[in-house]
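Students often ask why inverse folding is considered easier than folding. One informal answer: many sequences map to the same fold, so there is more than one right answer. In these notes we will look at a single instance of the problem. The structure comes first.
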């Protein structure tokens, strides 16, 4: 039985946090900001819409460029800085060789996320992707996961998994879609909310867990007994 593994992208397959730190250093040098500017950028980027973040950046550093232009420049640059976690392509290849279908379900802008998928080589290692801005849905909405399965020519099944680093987006979304969930903690303690079915500290460990998971058993259809009356007869 073929199973579907739906992976988050940022900080699950790719090290977005590391890329953001490199971008912050470049940004600070480009605009000749104070020495502590890069550290402020990293600490201030705690989630939420990026357009609001860059509006705040523009105001804090009194920049002449509009926030929309700063954001567009970031979207163009960050895919060039993003790197995969070590062994990602090999790990996904292991799952596919074992019969898994691999999908990516990610929140974000289409141009930004698609550039990451292609520049890192993930496009050749997966069976498809679903990007929130293109779909008009965002995790943890379960419809995004259903759409990801439909784009692969299938439907979600109880043996399918959602794997990601965000408790509120990936794990909650997986529960909403009634799927199995695997949280990549990166060493963090579980915060609050309905816990994941399984926990891993890294993608390598997550793939190992999936590889060892037994496939769900198909329900057998018992043939009728020879002496049983045909359906619809007395």
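Output (designed amino acids):
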């Amino acid at each position: 039985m073929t199973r579907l593994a739906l992976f988050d992208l940022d900080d699950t397959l790719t090290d977005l946090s590391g890329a953001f730190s490199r971008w912050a250093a470049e940004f600070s040098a480009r605009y000749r900001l104070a020495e502590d500017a890069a550290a402020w950028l990293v600490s201030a980027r705690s989630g939420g819409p990026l357009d609001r973040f860059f509006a705040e950046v523009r105001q804090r550093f009194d920049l002449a460029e509009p926030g929309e232009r700063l954001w567009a420049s970031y979207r163009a640059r960050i895919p060039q800085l993003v790197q995969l976690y070590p062994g990602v392509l090999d790990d996904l290849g292991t799952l596919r060789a074992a019969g898994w279908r691999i999908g990516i379900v990610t929140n974000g802008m289409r141009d930004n996320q698609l550039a990451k998928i292609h520049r890192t080589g993930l496009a050749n290692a997966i069976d498809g992707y679903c990007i929130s801005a293109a779909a008009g849905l965002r995790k943890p909405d379960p419809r995004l996961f259903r759409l990801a399965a439909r784009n692969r020519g299938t439907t979600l099944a109880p043996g399918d998994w959602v794997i990601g680093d965000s408790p509120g987006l990936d794990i909650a979304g997986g529960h909403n879609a009634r799927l199995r969930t695997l949280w990549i903690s990166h060493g963090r303690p579980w915060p609050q909310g309905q816990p994941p079915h399984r926990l891993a500290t890294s993608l390598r460990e997550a793939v190992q867990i999936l590889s060892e998971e037994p496939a769900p058993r198909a329900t057998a259809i018992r043939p009728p007994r020879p002496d049983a009356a045909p359906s619809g007869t007395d």
